[in-house]
Structures are given as structure tokens and as C-alpha cells.
Design goal:
Shape of chain A: globular
Helix content of chain A: 55-70%
Largest interface: A-B, 63 and 63 residues
Low-confidence stretches of chain A: 1-20
Order of helices and strands of chain A: HHHEEHHH
Strand content of chain A: under 5%
Strand order of the largest sheet of chain A: 1-2
Oligomer: homodimer
Distance between the termini of chain A: 70 Å
Mean pLDDT of chain A: 86
Number of helices of chain A: 6
Number of strands of chain A: 2
DNA sequence: GAATATTTGTAGCCATGGCTACAATTTGAC
DNA sequence: GTCAAATTGTAGCCATGGCTACAAATATTC
């Protein structure tokens, strides 16, 4: 007895979908999400250090509007992954790797913001959208952005 | 006895960072991530239904290149959130809400892809980048995208 | 109709990124 | 030097989205 009488015949199934492109696309998205936090954090640390000489857990907590506990845990992970360094109760520092990623991130961020401004997006919205977009823009797209911004200037 | 002798004075701390913009930005990003899965799934269901008349868990598993268990759990959640409907062992259907979101998602996706193509990004990369970007583009930016694509045509 | 293959569900694990509550440490002020 | 305030850490909770392994249901084939 069928639980669902409106079931189709099996012949409708089993066609493999278009191509592996679909899967590859989503693998990329998942990979992006993994590095996203690292990039956001090193960028935030660099931002704080650009203003204050010292970066503390509370600074990042304020920056991201999350609890200090969340920051603590993420900082721990990023330490084991070699982006950050700190001693117990000490300030948060960028490793060489962290600095490199921070610079790359910051550059990418600026490229996206400038591009959005160039196509007429308001500064406020450009900042917000760039924050979300920047982790998902390939180098090819990024260079098109640069090209366009240069041309529009 | 200080664990960290290079500790700064408290006076360096406590300056509230620039503005609440930072936090608002990240709140947005987090909200985006919540709806991202819903949008991806209703869009995927619509895609499958456009080709096959019936959408099953396995179809989505193939689509996203994840296990059927992952799909099952997410479909459950999206059912309780009113995007999808299905009976045990039955096919997956879009609710009214699901259909609406699917259409909106699809439209947004196309807008982003077309825009990337218009600025010279290759079709392959345009598809991949759009997948990541589309959930983070505000309506303001989206309309600038449209405007540009129209003009370039 | 019985056997097999496919599909779906369930149990239970993991990592990430949220949180509150409480403990420990460090700093600043008195 | 002591005490209060600020900061950080720890314990333990939650939801999401991954997974494997195994069980149950459904469909296809013989």
C-alpha cells in the first residue's frame, strides 16, 4: 500500500542532472564559507590595529556585535590555523600569514566597494553589500571590477 | 605578576569603534546566511521540477553534492518554515511561499549572471560567482546591475 | 509474488558559530 | 596593597549543516 498514491513511475527519475557544474558551484560556496570567518577576523584585527595599537577580544566582540565568548572560540581556531597569535589574557596579533590574508582581504574589499560606487550604489549600501559579496568574487570577476572602475574614473 | 609584560594601559581601550555600521553590516551577513539555504533549496526544487515533473531527495542530494541525509534534514526544516511540502517517502513540492521565493531567487540570480556577463566575465565563472553573490546583493545594487545590463545591451 | 535495487528515514557522530552563567585574571583607582 | 571594574577563560547549552551506518519503505524486475 502506497503512502503516497500520486507517486510517479521510476522512469521519471534517474536522469542525471545537467552537469557536475551544479555540484562544483556549491562546493565552492561551502569552501568560501570556511575561509570567510578567517578573512573577516584578520581584516577586523587589522582594522582595530590601524586605530588602536592593540587588539583585544572585546574589540572584536564590539566589531562583530557578538559575545566575547564567540570571539574567543573563533580566535582559538584561527590561532591553530595560523592566522592569529595571542597568549592567555594577552592582546591578539596577526601572524605573517594573518597579515598577508588581511592585506589581500582588504584589497579585495576596497575593489568591490569602489566598483559598487562606480556603478552608482550609495556609499552606505556599497559597504554593506561588499561585506557580503567580497568572499564570493573570483579573481576573474575581481579584475573586471577593477577594469570597470578604472574606466569609469 | 603579568603573564604578558607587553600589556598596554587601559587608556588605550574602551574607545567605541567608529560607528554601529560595523555591527549592522555583520548582522545583515548573518541574516543572509539564514535565508541562503532556503533560497538555494527552493531554487533547486524549481530547477528540478522544470525538467522532471517530480523532485525527490536524491535529486537535491545530487544537485548540491551532499548526502541524502543532509537534504532530508534541511527539507524538514524548510517544511516547518513553510517553503516546502512533502509526505513520507513522497516527492518534494513547493508551497505558495516556496514558489514565490523561488521566482524571486531565480530572477535575482539571472540579474546577477547577466550583469557579470555584461561586464565581461566568462559564462562559467559568471554562474559560479553569481551563486555566491546573489544572496548578498541589496535591491539597490540589484537595480544598478539591471540598469547597467540594459545600457550595455 | 518474491527478490532486488532504489529511495527515504533514523540514530548518532562532528565542526562551526551563536548564547548565558560563572570563574579567573588583569588593570586601574583609592 | 586592596578592592572594584574590566577583560578573558571555561563549562555547557542550542541550531545548522555536514557525515556514516543501518533500518524501513517503495519501485522495478524477474
Amino acid at each position: 500500500m502506497s503512502v503516497n498514491s500520486a507517486r510517479p513511475t521510476r522512469s521519471q527519475l534517474g536522469k542525471p542532472l545537467k552537469s557536475p557544474l551544479q555540484s562544483r558551484r556549491h562546493e565552492r560556496t561551502r569552501r568560501d564559507h570556511q575561509t570567510e570567518t578567517a578573512e573577516d577576523y584578520v581584516e577586523a584585527v587589522a582594522d582595530v590595529l590601524a586605530e588602536k595599537e592593540i587588539c583585544r577580544v572585546v574589540d572584536l566582540a564590539r566589531h562583530f556585535a557578538v559575545s566575547h565568548v564567540t570571539v574567543s572560540k573563533i580566535v582559538s581556531r584561527l590561532k591553530t590555523e595560523g592566522y592569529l597569535h595571542s597568549e592567555p589574557y594577552g592582546p591578539i596579533q596577526l601572524t605573517i600569514k594573518g597579515k598577508r590574508v588581511a592585506v589581500e582581504s582588504k584589497t579585495r574589499h576596497k575593489t568591490v566597494v569602489d566598483f559598487l560606487l562606480a556603478i552608482g550604489v550609495s556609499p552606505m549600501v556599497a559597504e554593506i553589500d561588499a561585506e557580503g559579496m567580497e568572499h564570493h568574487v573570483s579573481s576573474e570577476t575581481l579584475s573586471k571590477f577593477e577594469k570597470f572602475t578604472r574606466a569609469a574614473r
